[in-house]
Design goal:
Number of helices: 5
Distance between the termini: 72 Å
Helix content: 25-40%
Structural class: alpha+beta
CATH topology of the largest domain: Immunoglobulin-like
CATH architecture of the largest domain: Sandwich
Largest sheet: 6 strands, mixed
CATH class of the largest domain: Mainly Beta
Strand order of the largest sheet: 10-9-12-13-7-14
């Protein structure tokens, strides 16, 4: 039996919750069964996998867990198979474990489970994947899908689902954008969208995703020293993005950076002319 452990890329620091102990519990940003990880992101999020699969990976992204140890406890049909320990190297950390199926007696309908916890006793959740006929696979539903209302207490179909508290997620997104990590912000936005069925909140998150993509374009222009193009895009974004958006503070910091870069460009010809014959 081969166990493969890979640790992920550090990305910026985020908030955490307290436990009954003195150790802080990290917040789980995302978790999924997948067939592979590319650019430190899962390529899929599976609820089922074919019996013929040779290997599964389980991916987690956590925040606020710097210095802790994360556990992926793999079980099959309720029987513990292996407990994988993963060191957390930053306050925001992506990591994954893998399990090969060689030598195991598996069957269609069998269920793999991974329980995610920390060395200090924080229980972050349990995920289940069901083995299916060869060739059959399906994407996983949101990890925190809203359960149906009890029988006899169903809300009218016309009623919109109530909004949920996404303030912590918005704080996370704001910090990521301020540090320029638009890829991690994209993941956090997608995660927040999975937590709500409220149309207004989903619309706001869709707009935030669009603004994040525009900000990512601005970041690329600045890195490439396309000062003129970045300035034009900056002017457009300052008009279109609300000051209440998590993108806005990051936008203001890039505005100051652009001003410094423009100053450097204005000074450059002076030094060039001074060195000319």
């Amino acid at each position: 039996m081969r166990i493969c452990i890979v640790t992920g890329l550090l990305i910026p620091a985020l908030a955490f919750a307290e436990t009954a102990t003195n150790n802080p519990c990290p917040t789980l940003v995302s978790a999924a069964f997948t067939t592979d990880v590319e650019d430190r992101e899962p390529v899929s999020s599976l609820a089922t996998a074919p019996l013929s699969a040779n290997e599964l990976l389980f991916f987690t992204a956590i925040q606020g867990g710097n210095g802790q140890q994360l556990h992926h406890t793999w079980s099959y049909n309720g029987d513990a198979i292996v407990d994988v320990t993963l060191a957390v190297g930053s306050d925001y950390w992506r990591t994954w474990s893998s399990k090969t199926f060689a030598g195991l007696e598996l069957a269609v309908g069998g269920q793999w489970q991974v329980q995610v916890s920390t060395q200090s006793g924080c229980q972050l959740g349990t995920w289940t994947l069901t083995l299916s006929e060869d060739g059959a696979a399906s994407q996983m539903a949101p990890a925190h899908a809203t359960p149906p209302p009890p029988s006899g207490h169903a809300e009218p179909e016309s009623a919109d689902p109530s909004p949920v508290d996404l303030s912590k997620h918005y704080d996370v997104i704001r910090q990521l954008l301020d540090l320029g990590d638009t890829r991690a912000a994209k993941v956090a936005i997608r995660r927040a969208r999975q937590l709500t069925d409220n149309p207004q909140q989903q619309s706001a998150l869709d707009s935030l995703a669009t603004n994040n993509e525009a900000f990512a374009q601005l970041e690329r222009m600045i890195r490439q020293r396309d000062i003129h193009g970045a300035r034009e895009l900056m002017q457009t974004l300052e008009i279109s993005i609300s000051p209440d958006s998590p993108v806005y503070p990051a936008l203001q910091s890039r505005q100051r950076l652009l001003e410094r870069l423009e100053g450097d460009d204005r000074n450059e010809p002076i030094f060039q002319s001074a060195s000319s014959p």
